[in-house]
Every structure is written in structure tokens, then in C-alpha cells.
Inverse folding.
């Protein structure tokens, strides 16, 4: 280093802060520090949320909650009356479904679905001992309410009555006989009296024959077997109705018949059916079978119509094929 | 004030004690004005403190202080472009300054005046080299230039300085 450079260095060394200057600035700094401490501090969570690993923890948690509640909704769908999630099923899940039912047809369809649900629930809880009576009763009310909703706009509210049906099984035969009696306007009670009037000389035999007649027309106790047959019939019909409902020309009628079927099922609901007298049960069964026969007729007609129309329309292959496949199903009793 | 904050304060103030003088020195020879230089020191430390309290990390405390001060000095020059020499003559060297030897003060003022003749870039080099005591390598690194370039520039700056000094 030369002289000149040394001069500069020396100049440098000679310069420094005085003690006063130093203290002054220190004081200013301390004051500033105190000021900044009283100001709002950065959130202690800043580090958590700025770290790459946990940054998205909130969004993950949110998604997890969504998934969980999604699972809850699905579980709720299986809930039975009296269960914790049942209100979720009826109050929310089904309500959401109603939002999506826009057209008249889908509304109807939804009503039917809901009624089916109530029926299913009712049947399931009927034999369940753990569910209190009040819940069951309340639930049946819900079922009836739902069925009443189906009535609106439905022309065919009355169960078809007196038409004797071609289908023959033991229970139907009996009810058919009863129907024939009705149509000829001679009741079981009236017959003995008439006979009495026409042949007053043969009192004893009259009464005897009358008794025989009345025995024939007194309803026999309803067997479990009979009920089972009816329920099986219902199951088959329901499956077929669902298939037919997909055929556009038949869908409206199919929906109406579905509603009818539901009402029939309601009438056979164990909790209310079992408590009835034999005579009442007989009546109910008779009505049920009549309805079922009517629906079966509709199904046969539909089947025939679809088959014939599928043969004539050669252009639309794809839809026809679908129906052909479904028609196979109509033959089979399905669960 | 919780413990962490207290420790933070202590560390900071300790850094002030250790580094303030050197910073002042650097600042003084660049701006040629004591008052301004003192303000620079204060502002530098305050800005650094603000930076820390925002939660930002400071890798090299000393380097950060010098960088901050450099920015402040550059800003200062932008504001007072003209008449730095006049400013020197007016505010100039405080002969009341106890730390400065009266004998040397005349020589000192000469050096200062000469230094003032240089552009800030050259002056920076000279101050870094002879006031701060940095090596060529260190200067080169801090300015992002090669050692060779710095060496050449510094030599040229020194020559200029000599010329001014002799002509004063």
C-alpha cells in the first residue's frame, strides 16, 4: 500500500460516532421496537399455512367432510322409522329427490317411489319388536298420506269390482263366486228366505239347504298360503310394470297401475291386515286379486302390442332389441 | 413482552452496538455529511428491524444491513443530485467532533473533497476497500463482478482521487 492509500485508511479510522450520537440512535431504536411490538402481530398460524405440507389441510378437511356427509346420506337411505338417520332420509334425501322431479311424469314416479319406500319400511318394521307402537302407527299414517298424494289426478281410484276374471286359482275362484252372487242380486242371506217363500212345506229341508248354502258362502279363514300367493303375484306384477313403464306409449298407464298396486299392497299390510276379521280379510283379498288380475290383463295387452309394433318397425333396430330382451323377462317371475 | 420478543430485542440491540460504528463510517464517506450519515445508520437499523418483525428471515445480518444502507444512500443521491460539493462545504466537517484530531481534519477534508469528485460507483469501491477494509474478492462478490474488473476499476478510481487530491 502506498502513502495515498494509507491516507485514506487513516481518514477512515479517524471517523466514528460519539457516545452521545450512539446513545441517541439506540434510544430511537428502542422506542421504535416498542411501537412495533404493540402493532398487530402476524398470525401464529402463518407458518402452518405457509408450509407446503399443511397448506392445503383446510381444503382436505372440507373435502373429507363432504365425503363423510355423502356417506351419511347413503346410509340414511337404508334407515327405518325410529332410526337416528330416518329423518335425514325423509327430510333431506327425499326432499332433494323432489327437486329433480320436474315433469308431471317424474313427479308421479317419485310419489310412487316414496310410497313404495314407506310400504317397504312398514312391512319391515311390522314384525320388529324393538320399535315402539307409536312409531309404527305414525309411520302408517305417513304411508297413507303418501298414498293419498297418488290419488290426485288419478281417474281410477276405485278398485275394479265385479268383473269375473279369467285367471283361476283357489282364492280367486272363491271371490269370483262371491262376485257372481252379487251380480245376480241374490245375497247369501236372501237365498234361504226366498227358498223358504217358494217352498213353505219343506221347512226343515229348506233351512238345511239354506244352512248349506250359507256355509258355502261363509268366508273360510284366510290361510298363510293364500296370502303368500297374492304377495308373490304382486311382486311379479310390480317387476313387469317397471319394464312396461319404460315403453313411452304405456308409461302413463303403467304409472297409474303402479299406484293401484301400491294401494293394494297397503291393504295387505301385515300390521293392519292381521287384526281384521276373517270376513274382512276375505274381502280385502278378493279386492286385491281383482286388481291384480286387471293389471295382469294390462300387462298382457302391452306385451302383445309391443311385440307387434316391434315386428313392424324395422328401421329402429336398437330400441326394439332392448324391448325384446325385456319381453323375455316378462315371462319369468322375478324378484 | 414475551421471552422470545425480549431475546429478539437483545440480539438486535447487541448487533447495533457491534456494527453501528462501521456502518456509520461507510455511510459518512459516501455521503460526506455527518448528520446525514447518522440518519442513514438509524434508518438502516429501523428498516432491518421492521423486516425481522414481519417474520422474514435474514440470512446474513451484516450483509443485510450494508445492502439496506446502500439502497438508502442511492436514494439519497437521487434526491440531491446537484451541489454535493456545496453541501460538503456548508454542512461539512464538524470541527466540534471530539473524535477527530484537529491536525488531521485539514487532511481529512481534503480527502473528503477529493472523494466527492468521484462518481458514486467509484467512491463506493474506494470506501469498501479502504474504509470498510474489504478485499478485492469480497468486493467483487458483493457487486457480482469479476475480481479483475474490480481491480481495474479500483485502480482507476484511485488514480482519479490522487489527481483531485493533488490539485486541491
Amino acid at each position: 500500500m502506498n502513502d495515498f492509500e494509507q491516507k485514506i485508511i487513516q481518514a477512515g479510522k479517524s471517523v466514528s460516532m460519539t457516545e452521545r450520537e450512539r446513545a441517541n440512535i439506540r434510544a430511537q431504536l428502542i422506542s421504535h421496537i416498542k411501537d412495533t411490538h404493540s402493532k398487530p402481530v402476524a398470525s401464529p398460524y402463518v407458518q402452518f399455512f405457509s408450509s407446503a405440507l399443511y397448506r392445503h389441510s383446510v381444503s382436505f378437511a372440507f373435502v373429507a367432510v363432504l365425503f363423510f356427509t355423502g356417506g351419511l346420506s347413503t346410509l340414511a337411505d337404508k334407515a327405518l322409522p325410529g332410526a337416528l338417520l330416518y329423518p335425514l332420509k325423509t327430510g333431506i334425501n327425499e326432499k332433494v329427490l323432489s327437486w329433480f322431479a320436474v315433469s308431471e311424469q317424474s313427479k308421479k314416479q317419485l310419489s310412487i317411489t316414496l310410497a313404495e319406500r314407506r310400504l317397504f319400511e312398514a312391512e319391515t318394521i311390522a314384525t320388529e319388536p324393538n320399535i315402539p307402537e307409536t312409531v309404527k302407527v305414525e309411520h302408517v299414517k305417513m304411508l297413507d298420506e303418501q298414498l293419498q298424494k297418488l290419488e290426485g289426478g288419478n281417474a281410477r281410484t276405485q278398485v275394479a269390482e265385479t268383473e269375473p276374471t279369467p285367471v283361476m286359482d283357489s282364492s280367486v275362484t272363491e271371490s269370483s263366486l262371491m262376485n257372481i252372487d252379487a251380480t245376480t242380486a241374490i245375497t247369501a242371506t236372501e237365498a234361504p228366505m226366498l227358498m223358504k217363500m217358494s217352498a213353505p212345506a219343506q221347512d226343515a229341508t229348506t233351512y238345511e239347504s239354506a244352512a248349506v248354502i250359507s256355509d258355502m258362502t261363509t268366508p273360510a279363514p284366510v290361510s298363510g298360503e293364500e296370502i303368500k300367493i297374492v304377495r308373490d303375484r304382486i311382486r311379479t306384477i310390480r317387476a313387469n310394470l317397471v319394464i312396461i313403464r319404460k315403453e313411452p306409449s304405456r308409461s302413463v298407464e303403467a304409472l297409474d297401475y303402479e299406484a293401484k298396486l301400491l294401494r293394494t299392497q297397503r291393504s295387505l299390510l301385515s300390521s293392519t291386515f292381521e287384526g281384521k276379521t276373517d270376513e274382512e280379510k276375505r274381502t280385502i283379498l278378493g279386492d286385491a286379486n281383482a286388481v291384480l288380475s286387471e293389471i295382469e290383463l294390462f300387462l298382457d295387452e302391452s306385451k302383445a302390442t309391443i311385440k307387434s309394433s316391434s315386428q313392424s318397425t324395422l328401421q329402429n333396430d336398437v330400441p326394439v332389441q332392448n324391448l325384446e330382451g325385456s319381453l323375455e323377462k316378462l315371462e319369468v317371475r322375478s324378484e | 413482552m414475551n421471552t422470545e420478543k425480549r431475546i429478539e430485542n437483545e440480539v438486535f440491540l447487541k448487533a447495533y452496538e457491534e456494527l453501528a460504528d462501521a456502518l456509520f463510517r461507510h455511510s459518512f464517506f459516501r455521503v460526506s455529511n455527518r448528520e446525514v450519515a447518522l440518519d442513514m445508520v438509524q434508518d438502516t437499523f429501523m428498516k432491518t428491524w421492521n423486516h425481522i418483525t414481519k417474520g422474514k428471515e435474514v440470512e446474513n445480518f451484516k450483509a443485510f444491513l450494508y445492502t439496506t444502507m446502500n439502497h438508502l444512500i442511492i436514494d439519497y443521491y437521487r434526491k440531491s443530485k446537484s451541489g454535493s460539493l456545496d453541501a460538503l462545504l456548508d454542512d461539512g466537517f464538524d470541527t466540534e467532533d471530539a473524535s477527530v484530531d484537529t491536525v488531521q481534519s485539514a487532511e481529512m477534508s481534503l480527502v473528503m473533497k477529493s472523494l466527492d469528485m468521484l462518481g458514486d460507483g467509484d467512491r463506493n469501491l474506494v470506501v469498501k476497500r479502504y474504509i470498510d477494509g474489504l478485499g478485492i474478492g469480497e468486493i467483487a462478490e458483493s457487486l457480482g463482478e469479476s475480481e479483475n474488473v474490480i481491480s481495474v476499476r479500483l485502480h482507476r478510481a484511485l488514480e482519479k482521487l490522487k489527481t483531485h487530491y493533488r490539485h486541491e
Summary: Chain B has a mean pLDDT of 83. The radius of gyration of chain B is 17 Å.
